[in-house]
Write a structure and sequence with these properties.
Elements: E1 14-16, E2 24-27, H1 33-42, E3 46-49, E4 54-57, H2 62-72, E5 78-81, H3 84-96, H4 100-108, E6 111-114, H5 117-125, H6 139-147, E7 155-159, H7 166-174, E8 178-182, E9 185-188, H8 193-204, E10 210-213, H9 216-228, H10 232-240, E11 244-247, H11 250-257, H12 271-285, E12 287-292, E13 295-300, E14 303-306, E15 309-312, H13 315-325, H14 334-341, H15 349-362, E16 370-373, E17 377-380
Helix pairs in contact: 3-4, 3-5, 8-9, 8-10, 9-11, 13-15, 14-15
Length: 384
């Protein structure tokens, strides 16, 4: 396994501890990535940035202009806002064409539906009010609401969110509605596909502790990259076991839930709430407190916290320390450590000795916590 680097490219070392110190988190978002990364780093996390998609605005796209002209060609009965960024982009682009006031008036005379709080906030900011917004933020519920009404001859504008809503629009057309699909932006392949592939590999090797997702398409793109790399099984196994999947909301989480991966999500779909959820969930599942030499020693992620100072560990020494900490004070033989840290790798006992030496070196003045028991193995010097 490769030694992790700090965000500035420095090797692991000592630093003040925060609630996410010791944890490495992959960020897959394209939009507002800098904000999410800053919030995580502020709490002590190390962040791997690997946007799995990018957003392409279509301000000059003829399809958007033609869709807007169709909306203005006659009265609209329903208008559906699916994302905040998409709605704002549509209104702003129409304003740039000198059609902003007309479009707002056309929407004001229609029944406005919104998919979730972000779309609702954008609609209200544009001076409109929504009639219905499903609590689940799912397009399925919007469709159910619409299909319960008479739709023959109704004109419905649907602001798309990165990809065509073919099934949604088809169901409405089957009921006799005229559907105007409004493509405000499109999801496109990432600018740095190698970064996504590296994050997939690190996930498969369980070198990250969590992945943060802010959209369902980002998850799909991540899993597609795992497929292309031949690592889908390994990645899903890691996500079902050691690597936390944190999603901004239940709609975002659906592609993972559909393949049997449990996720955590905040009650409110906001970046700050997502970070707070991660800061609560990761220590709860990957934190252990021990007493050694009269001091409280905390093992958290890939770090050891002693007297408020964090000692970051490379992945293999961190795995050795976790194995020793499962039964503090008990002796683990070199063979035991080989089975736990290097399963099926073909490594020999020299790898164990080298990893223990690196672990002691990374712990600095606290390296004596890892004791050698002659002819038996190693143990943590705990208690007292």
């Amino acid at each position: 396994m490769a030694t992790p680097r700090t965000d500035q490219g420095e090797p692991p070392g000592r630093e003040p501890a925060g609630p996410l110190t010791g944890f490495t988190i992959g960020v897959t978002a394209a939009r507002r990535r800098e904000e999410l990364t800053a919030l995580l780093r502020r709490r002590g996390a190390r962040v791997i940035e690997a946007p799995t998609l990018r957003i392409l605005p279509l301000a000059d796209d003829g399809d958007l202009r033609r869709a807007t002209d169709r909306c203005l060609a006659g009265p609209l009965d329903y208008v559906i806002a699916t994302t905040g960024v998409g709605w704002r982009g549509w209104m702003s682009t129409a304003d740039g064409w000198g059609q902003g006031a007309r479009l707002a008036q056309a929407c004001r005379q229609a029944v406005v539906l919104t998919r979730g709080p972000k779309a609702t906030g954008a609609v209200r900011a544009s001076g409109l009010n929504e009639t219905y917004s499903p609590r689940s933020e799912a397009c399925d519920e919007l469709l159910t609401w619409l299909l319960a009404r008479e739709l023959t001859g109704r004109r419905i504008a649907v602001q798309e969110h990165g990809a065509p809503l073919d099934g949604f629009a088809a169901a409405l057309r089957e009921r006799g509605a005229e559907v105007i699909e409004v493509p405000v932006y499109r999801w496109a392949p990432p600018q740095d596909p190698d970064a996504v592939r590296r994050l997939v590999e690190q996930t498969a090797r369980r070198e990250v502790h969590a992945l943060a997702f802010t959209s369902a398409p980002a998850i799909t793109a991540f899993l597609d990259t795992a497929d292309a790399a031949g690592l889908r099984a390994e990645v899903l196994a890691a996500l079902r076991d050691d690597v936390l999947s944190a999603c901004v909301g239940p709609l975002c989480a659906r592609p993972l839930e559909d393949v049997g991966v449990s996720t955590v999500s905040p009650e409110r779909g906001r970046l700050g709430s997502l970070v707070r959820t991660i800061a609560e969930a990761l220590p709860a599942r990957n934190r252990r407190e021990l007493q050694a030499g009269g001091r409280s020693i905390v093992l958290q992620g890939s770090a050891v916290l002693v007297d408020g100072t964090a000692f970051w560990l490379p992945p293999v020494p961190a795995a050795v320390l976790r194995a020793l900490a499962e039964q503090p004070g008990w002796v683990l033989s070199r063979a035991d450590l080989l089975r736990r840290v290097w399963p099926g790798s073909g490594a020999d006992e020299h790898a164990v000795e080298a990893a223990v030496a690196r672990l002691r070196g990374a712990l600095g003045p606290h390296g004596a916590l890892v004791r050698t028991v002659p002819k038996r193995g190693y143990r943590l010097a705990v208690g007292g």
